[in-house]
Amino acid sequence: MKQSVATVKIAEIELLIGSAIAGFLLASVTCVGHIAGSSMYEHLFEDNLHLVVLLVFGSIIVVPTYLYERLTWLELKRILKSGRLDLLISAAVGAYVALQIAASFQLGNRIENLDVAWGVSFYLLTTIGLGSATVRATGRAKLSCHERVSFLPDDELKSVNNDQLKSSDQAKSFADLVAKESAIGGLVFGIDGPWGVGKSSFVNFAQIEWDKNEEIIVFRFEPIKYLGEGDLVRSFIRELSGRIRIDHFAPELRPLASKYARMIKAEPGFSIPGVRLSIDSNASTVDEIVADVDEVLRRNGRRAIIVLDDLDRVEFEVMNRVLFMIHRSRLASNITYVLVYDTERIIKRSGDQSTREYLEKFINAKVSLFADLRDLAEYLRGGWRSALSSDDKSIGSARVLGLQSILSNLADLLEGSTGGNYVGMVGNIRKIKRLINAMLLLGIERIELHQTDFNRTDLINLLVLHLNFPGVFREIYSNEGEGRTGIFSVESSGGFYANSAKFSEYAAGLCRDSEYLVKQLFDVGVIGIDKDKATRGQLISLACFNSPGRRNLANYLDLIVRFVVPDPLTTEVVYESILNQVALGSEVSVEIEKSVLHEKFSAQVKLLAAFASSANQFSRDAKEQMIDFIVENLPKFSSVGSPSDRSNCIYSLAIITNSIFDGLDHASPKFQHSAAQLQELVVGNGDASLINRLGAVGRGLQGIHDVMLLRLLCCADRGNQLRNIHLALAREHIYAKPAMQSGRAKQENIFVIDGVRLISQKAFQIFKERYIDSGANVFIECWKESSNEDFVTAPLVKWGGVAGFISYQLSNSLPPTGSGVGCGFYDVKGDSDKQGIAEIMNTYLFGLCFSSDQDETMMVFADYCLSNFSRDYFDDEGIGAVPTRESLEQGLDPARFKRFWLDNHERFKLRRLDRLERVVETANYRASYAEHLRQVWDTLDAAYLNAGADADADADANANANANANAVIANGIAVERGN
User: Fold this and answer.
1) Sign of CA dihedral 223, 228, 233, 239
2) Where residue 973 falls among pLDDT bands split at 50, 70, 90?
3) Whole-number Å distance between alpha carbons of 850 and 679
4) Cα–Cα distance between 464 and 431 in angstroms, integer?
5) What's residue 744's pLDDT?
6) Which residue, among 689, 686, 617, 688, has the nearest Cα to 656 in the 3D structure?
7) Which of 67, 505, 630, 828 lies at 20 to 30 Å from 40 by C-alpha?
8) How far from 642 is each of 1, 647, 801, 811, 925, CA to CA, in Å?
9) What is the pLDDT of residues 334-367, one digit of tens each?
10) What does the mean pLDDT of the chain come to?
């Protein structure tokens, strides 16, 4: 201790001498400045008062501003507060000596004799230097502004207001205990916790409480920041002395670090890569220096709490050095240590399990921090928003809403029975922030997940896998991405699923955490589809499905790797959400209007099909609402394609209508009433019937096409897909007596024929009133409705759509053959079924539409023939289709076709239509007038014309027959008009 006292005395003497020198210099500068200023005033400024005023005001502005920016007032405050009268006296002595020397050497006279320019130069240089330093400092302050935070910062928390994990209360209790025990001194406390648990934030909260006590000085030292300086103890002493001098005037602490450097000996000691640590053989070095610090604290009535943070992040040898330093300084009564570390990490670095006991020798008491999964879950459900900028944290922000659904699902996982399996991957606040930042970097917050089929849990597991085990994620991508199917996707086996043998082998070789995630994603036993069939929801959402027809996993991978978001219109969830609202009573038009399906008519077709496929799950009101929606909006849907969107809507309409009275049973007493209602809905006479609404005048030929398609779907000959409608339309047949059915065709065909008789007659009646009775050519009218070009001069004609379908259905007189009964099979009225409709349609087509009297109608016939080539013959060099007699006659009366060609073939040939640059396009091929029309004429000639006299005789006979038939049909048309 004597040596220590001697050391203190020497330090005090050095301090007094330094103070005297400072006083000497200050007095000298003041004296010289006063003399020089007086000389300049007498020789330069006496007659220039305005210049004096300018310089004085400049000095008044620059000098105080400079002193304020340098916080000189705080230094003066510390000096006065220290009460060091001995230093003041020493400085006064130095100043007195300076003044005496100046007087002895007549310094004033010497300065006055100097050129006044020296004084001016000195003044300007001083003023400019102080002013520029002040301006630079002010400029840096303006530039140091906070930019908008786009990611969650990983900094420790500074304020308890941001405490999301409820650790501030525990930190306050710990701080109170340490503050109380620091009055005794010599104690070492520990804060033990894993990486990312919030140890630094815990210390910050404790420091808030310590800073409230004016007797406590908190010094935080992070060894990892000073590894490159070579001597950790010297850095510690320098920083500690500097921290104390911030609050107290203690100049005796300034030389402690250099003192330690002089005393230490460069002998072999501990070392880490790039850093050499030498240990003084005289261990009293640290004791003496710490004793100096302790003395300053005692004299000022203060206590120091020294926090050593991130002790586990330095090499084990460096940590030993720090512990040695702490052990040697424990006798200081005004110093308390708080060590922050992770025991498991230190043990891992040392490679020795006994390190745990070794640490206990240095630490008197410790608090252990743990991650509470419930607090983490609460943070995920909303606490993370506080770290976002004010622009991002608003409740309506897309960044918040886009992530919240995913993070809420992760919160459920952490709170669930399997939460412990996620601790190693997202079990602390830092790892959660890394996950959220990774999601922000990928742009996942901009995804409207409610419009995707992604399973939230699978998406979370893949993101955690991508973040924590990138090698495993890359293996999955290399097997399953970019159109590939590998070992991770499940294999179907009789409705159940199984994993490949290679998958099981791969999963077994992973670490525990990555194996858990992989099995959660792909193991059929874990998912539960090895013994039970997968539900529809599982099939459309789970990542384990990645077959060519269901690329679920590929969609996940594309999202994470390339941020390719599936088109909401291709997902199932969009349609299901709308249908759910419809089931709850919402109007389908309203739901479509506010969804992504608005103005997306092809997507609306998919919605209607989805409703139709599950129509039995909806109420009758919902079905009727959907029927009204389809009928009212049908004109908006495209009629292009095969089948077109509009045709698909008719299919959905028929299925929904069929479900209005689900499960009609003709043996039920309620059958007659329900069947009558359904029949009225389909073919009733009122404006509310489907056939009248679809075929309304304003809908043109497209409306009649809709009627004809609905009629075809209602035919039981097409597989009895609409059983309720079939029963309703044939209810008279069901209740007819057996005697009334005698002499008819087979019983099964009678049901089919009777079922669509009424709808066929009504459909024909609509067509007849608008086109046959008015003498309008259906093909020309169809062209006018779909094109603004002149029909005759048009170079391209698309055929086989509306007009072709209508004419075929109405003229077709085929009985039940498995593809529907032709509308022409029936009479205009009655149940005789003598193909009266077909007769009228053939007369209309051959007599009006295909007439050889006009170029326009001749081209209609040519277009018709070119659009009815047979696909039974293939020509690699041509169009792959050729005209045949059967293909040209389909749907028409062969006899009428023959008579028509016999009467008009010369006119068609003389017209030389084959010279026109006109092309007919169908769904399967293109045929031109120039290349293919001659083939048509040749085919018809080969079928109908004979050489020589036989041909003439047949022509005369056919002409007479044709005239008789035309007379009969004309009379029939007249009768219909009269009726």
Assistant:
1) negative
2) very low
3) 37
4) 10
5) 47
6) 617
7) 67
8) 105, 8, 9, 21, 14
9) 888 899 999 888 888 887 778 888 888 888 888 9
10) 79
Six-digit token pair at 299?
Answer: 């004299």
Position 58, amino acid: G
The contacts found for 852-857 with CB under 8 angstroms, 24 or more apart, are 852/904, 852/907, 852/908, 855/792, 855/911, 856/777, 856/780, 856/791, 856/792, 857/777
Looking at per-residue pLDDT, the higher value among 168 and 291 belongs to 168
Q: Which two tokens stand for residue 66?
A: 């400079």
Q: What is the pLDDT of residues 638-666, one digit of tens each?
A: 887 778 899 999 999 999 999 988 767 66
709 vs 713: CA distance, rounded Å: 6
d(CA 779, CA 764): 16
d(CA 635, CA 631): 8
* CA dist., res. 786 & res. 460, Å (int): 51
Candidates 944, 863, 856, 948; CA nearest to 905 is 944
CB 806 within 8 A of CB 705: yes
Cβ 517 vs Cβ 464: under 8 Å: yes
Q: What is the dihedral sign for C-alpha 256, 261, 264, 269?
A: positive
Q: Give which of 659, 657, 646 is closest to 683, Cα–Cα.
A: 657
Residue type, 297: L
**pLDDT (0 to 100) of residue 626:** 95
Long-range contact list for 534-538, CB < 8 A, 24+ apart? Answer: 534/497
Domains of the chain: 2-143 (no CATH), 166-370 (3.40.50.300), 386-570 (no CATH), 620-631+644-681+704-738 (no CATH), 838-978 (no CATH)
CB atoms within 10 A of CB 585: 10
Q: Give the three-class secondary structure for 901.
A: helix
**Where would I find the beta strands (DSSP E) of 548-607?**
550-551
Q: How confident is the model at residue 331 (pLDDT cuts 50, 70, 90)?
A: low
Query: Does 772 score more than 90 pLDDT?
Result: yes
Q: What are 963's two structure tokens? A: 């005239």
Q: What are phi and psi of 484, to 5 degrees?
A: -90, 155
Residue 717 · residue 654 · CB < 8 Å:
no
Cα(689)–Cα(679) distance, integer angstroms: 9
User: DSSP states of 196-245 as a string?
Assistant: TS-HHHHHHHHHHHHHT-TTEEEEEE-GGGGGGGS-HHHHHHHHHHHHHH
What CA–CA distances, in Å, run from 219 to 48, 75, 238, 888? 56, 19, 12, 101
* DSSP state letter for 190: E
Q: Which of 250-254, 352-356, 927-931 has the least mean pLDDT? A: 250-254
Residue pair 530/504 in contact (Cβ under 8 Å)? The answer is no
